[in-house]
Specification:
Radius of gyration: 59 Å
CATH architecture of the domain at 159-262: Sandwich
Strand content: 15-25%
Largest sheet: 4 strands, antiparallel
CATH topology of the domain at 159-262: Immunoglobulin-like
Number of helices: 6
Shape: rod-shaped
Helix content: 40-55%
CATH class of the domain at 159-262: Mainly Beta
């Protein structure tokens, strides 16, 4: 080991290393010896001090006019670049990581915001559907309530039931009238009506002592329980075939009648 160390010290590599004339491989070799052997490290420090002393001893102060001429020449022909005495600092790894995290956060925020907007729109659609459903439920409840009221009227002991059947001019005609003289309500249920020409219609009339009163048009498409005006002291009901424009029927003209009934005496 001592021979190896002595050989290295006599080789002049350490002097060349101080002067900067060694190769990369030689630099590695010298640095390994400096790190391994205290003797080499001490000699390295000594040589550095000697080189510094030598440099200071050989300093020659330049004439002042030369320095002024140099500055003038530089300012006229060459753009001056201000040098920073501090070495350029590399971006720390944590700054790079923070930047990446910021981009990821921004992207995630955008996706979450877009998702929130989509969910908000879906929620709005659901809310609108709920309101529509509530409206439908309310409408159905109203219809059910009306059906229940009609059912109660039909089952009222005071309600009289009258079946109107067609004559030879309308053999398949059948309607049912429900009249309650106490509640003063009248309803009619269209069971069947023979088809008529486009310009004609079925109409129902109430027969009073001195005249006939039109209570409305009966339509095959309205085959449901229908409320008609209640006529106080009506003697009977008639169904006639009339022009769609209407007709003023009187008690002496019932040639258009296809069905009629006599009502019971009012209480």
């Amino acid at each position: 080991m001592e021979k190896k160390l002595q050989h290295f010290m006599n080789s002049g590599l350490l002097d060349s290393y101080i002067l900067g004339t060694t190769t990369i491989d030689e630099n590695l070799e010298v640095e390994s010896y400096i790190a391994e052997f205290p003797e080499v490290a001490a000699e390295y420090d000594r040589l550095q001090e000697n080189l510094e002393i030598l440099a200071k001893a050989n300093i020659v102060e330049a004439p002042r006019y030369i320095l002024n001429d140099v500055f003038k020449e530089i300012s006229e022909e060459t753009p001056v670049v201000k040098m920073n005495s501090r070495p350029e600092r590399r971006t720390p790894w944590f700054s790079i990581a923070a930047s990446i995290a910021a981009f990821i956060f921004a992207g995630t925020s955008f996706l979450l915001n877009d998702k929130n907007i989509s969910l908000s729109n879906e929620n709005q659609v659901v809310v609108e559907e709920i309101f529509d459903l509530r409206s439908d439920i309310e409408e159905n409840n109203n219809k059910l309530e009306n059906v229940m009221l009609q059912f109660m009227k039909l089952n009222n002991p005071e309600t009289e039931k009258y079946v109107l059947r067609g004559n030879s001019r309308a053999k398949n005609l059948k309607t049912v009238a429900y009249i309650n003289a106490v509640d003063k309500t009248s309803m009619i249920d269209v069971v069947s009506l023979p088809k008529l020409p486009e310009d004609q219609s079925y109409q129902i009339w109430a027969e009073l002592q001195d005249r006939m009163v039109n209570l409305g048009i009966l339509d095959e498409s309205e085959r449901k329980l229908k409320t008609i005006p209640y006529m106080e002291n009506a003697l009977g009901l008639s169904i006639t075939i009339e022009p769609k424009a209407g007709s003023q029927m009187n008690s002496n003209n019932n040639e258009n009648s296809v069905a009629e009934i006599v009502l019971k005496n009012n209480k």
